[in-house]
Amino acid sequence: MFKNFNDIESYILNHKIVKKIALANAEDSNALEALVDAKNKGIVSGILIGNVKKIKELLIEWNENLDDYEYIECHDELESAKIAVNLVNSGKADIPMKGLMMTSSFMKAILNKENGLIENNNLLSQASILEFKEESRLMIISDCAVNINPDVEKKIKITQNAINLANKLGVDKPNVALLSALEKVNPSIQSTVDAHEVANYPDFKNAGEIYGPLALDIAISKEAALHKGIDNNVCGNADILIVPDLDAGNIFTKGLVFFAHLKVAGVLLGTKSPVIMTSRTDTPNDKYLSILMAIFQAC
Q1: Domains in the chain, ordered, with CATH?
Q2: Using one digit for the tens of pLDDT, what is the confidence trace for 185-212?
Q3: CA-CA to 239 of 20 to 30 Å: which in 48, 142, 262, 298?
Q4: Do the Cβ atoms of 20 and 153 come closer than 8 Å?
């Protein structure tokens, strides 16, 4: 079981894993700096797509050898995203990465029915991996960036995607907490109804206990749960937190980053290959952690 991002980095370095990343609109200084960092650690090589003049100017500022990278000239963000995806589909790259562009442009290339990266009837979902230092373990939060207001059917698929990721991280039977504002089903709060239905879905694979609805404090604190009269193994032992909708997940994860300063890496799930889709406000280190997780997914 991997307990933190350093464990994952050590695993990749020790196994000498190297993946090729196609960075779309690579003139994004934060994304490019993260890729350069990963390249200098020997875990990636890069194909840089976009305004090649600006890209090379950034590399020169960092005293990088320009011959260490491949370049493709492109001045349209959607076309740049399509090129990155096509490079992966053709086997010339392993992972596409979003640079300086709108998420919608990047997603159009990923979701393209003919040339995208969605596998079969999989639901594309996002997950944030959180380094929970107090308990020396990783936790997964989903879905914070893709599915806006998922219904029960989609929440079941989002949950299974997150379970699969937890399995990959070494958690054989992850416990899942389905979050809402309270721990009782209230017909006036749809997320409590949905959580109860998802918790009772019988066909999840490789999962531990699944419980909901749960308020956040009860999900992460056994003491808080017992104080409220709830004695369930998921409480205080949740490996996965399923949020009710994108609004809640987005605010929650950004709060963790900007207020609590926790390490968080975002990944996409349900695609044929790992995908690196970070926020434009993410720091180079945030983006590096997402690169790290994508390489790990590709192992």
Answers
A1: 5-116 (3.40.50.10950), 125-258 (3.40.718.10)
A2: 999 999 999 999 999 999 999 999 999 9
A3: 298
A4: no
